[in-house]
Amino acid sequence: MPRLKKRCSQALILLALAVGVLIFLFQDHSSELFYETHWQDLGMSEPQHQIVLEPQQQQRVPETQPPALPQRLLVPCFANASVANMSGFSAQPRHIQDFLLYKHCRDFLILQNAPPNKCTGSPGGLGPVFLLLAIKSSPKNYERRDLIRRTWGQEREVNGATIRRLFLVGTEPNGLEARKVNWLLAMEAQAHGDILQWDFHDTFFNLTLKQVLFLEWRAVQCPDASFIFNGDDDIFAHTDNMVVYLQDNKADKHLFVGYVIRNVGPIRVPWSKYFVPELVMKENKYPPYCGGGGILMSQFTTGAIRRASHVIPLFPIDDVYLGMCLEREGLAPATHMGIRVAGIQPPSPRIGSFNPCFYQDLLLVHRFLPYEMLLMWDALKNSDLECSKVSIIQPK
Ligand SMILES: *[C@@H]1O[C@H](CO)[C@@H](O)[C@H](O)[C@H]1NC(C)=O
Ligand SMILES: *[C@@H]1O[C@H](CO)[C@@H](O)[C@H](O)[C@H]1NC(C)=O
Ligand SMILES: *[C@@H]1O[C@H](CO)[C@@H](O)[C@H](O)[C@H]1NC(C)=O
């Protein structure tokens, strides 16, 4: 017992010293903001570190408090034991069982938050956000995030409108990996201020949870963003074109565009990634929805979807879930011809599909390798791109 006491006091002294050094190092930088990182992934606890966030582009951050998230005590969410009593439950694949056991859980701790001026803008820096890029990324996809930061996801002004960027991530399901990757994400958050991480397992069937948590975050921390782009980290988004397109639209009107998928239903073959058994959904038809690779939505529509999400139970496939929310609100998704979630077909096989001229009029193309993003970005930035009139966008 006395040994334990000694250990504890040693640990406390070390902690106090560390905090003291941090405060000493940064006391002159009164405009810098401190964020907490939580390390309690899967039972591993560590003293809480203080992380210093470099203000972006050397701008001075106004000395206001970050907008407070609703203060709640987070009660750990337990599996719903009576779910396991449903007939056929034990025959389901593991990820389906996980989904059913935990689908009532919607409250998760934020491990990395965005800087408070993410959406409001700051004096001398970027203005209030017009288009917020909310990019779903797996914790380990560091290279993809890095390339997006350097290419289409650059925070900047286009046509006088501010684009800001956030990566939405959960945690690695594997405990040891989680510790490592959380460290990586803490570093990224510190360097770029673009990580929004929650303490839930980042799996395919938890993508709807990620979406719903983001909608809650947006309502509190980013209510004034005119438009939201929701997309994956393996796409190429022509963000300049997006701004030009969105400037012809109104934030307070319905807008939900992407690539609309109709007349499909749950896939009932168990080996499919998209397998949804009757136990999860009885109906055989999905409402119309937009493929999740990339969707643009207005402030109005984001609010409507959030409202619907409060009453519609989580459904494992995130883009279908958004379609369910729209349907409930009496809204419809629309196709934009410039959004190609299935890649693009060049008019002739002799012209490769990797031709910047095909991309100059597009908003989004799915399936890009990281280095291809860099090449495409460079090509599109090259103002004397010589293109004949081979526009592939058909008139609507
Ligand atoms: C599951 O079913 C058994 C038998 O019908 C019942 O005794 C038990 O209480 C049920 N468990 C839960 C958690 O509902
Ligand atoms: C737990 O599962 C049962 C059976 O599916 C369901 O009736 C009940 O509402 C669930 N409870 C929660 C808290 O979701
Ligand atoms: C979703 O995340 C929760 C919290 O980490 C986890 O308990 C659950 O198993 C996950 N669900 C799936 C389907 O992976």
Descriptors:
golgi apparatus; single chain; 396 residues; 31% helix; 3-stranded mixed β-sheet; binds 2-acetamido-2-deoxy-beta-D-glucopyranose; disordered C terminus; transferase; N-acetyl-beta-D-glucosaminide beta-(1,3)-galactosyltransferase activity; signal-anchor; 10 helices; 16 strands; 17% strand
Characterize the structure shown.
The structure is a single chain. The protein has one domain (37-54, 61-396). The protein has ten helices and 16 strands. It has helices at 2-26, 94-102, 142-150, 175-192, 207-221, 239-246, 299-309, 318-328, 356-359, 370-381; strands at 33-36, 50-53, 110-112, 129-136, 156-158, 161-171, 195-201, 227-232, 235-237, 256-258, 260-261, 289-290, 294-298, 334-335, 339-340, 364-366. Strands 3, 4, 5, 6, 7, 8, 10, 13 and 14 form a nine-stranded mixed β-sheet that branches. It has a three-stranded mixed β-sheet with strand order 9-16-15, with no helix packed on it. A two-stranded antiparallel ribbon has the order 1-2. Strand 5 and strand 6 (161-171) form a beta hairpin. Helix 3 (142-150) packs parallel to helix 10, helix 5 (207-221) crosses helix 7 (299-309) and helix 7 packs across helix 8. It binds 2-acetamido-2-deoxy-beta-D-glucopyranose (3 copies). Keywords: Glycoprotein, Glycosyltransferase, Golgi apparatus, Membrane, Signal-anchor, Transferase, Transmembrane, Transmembrane helix.
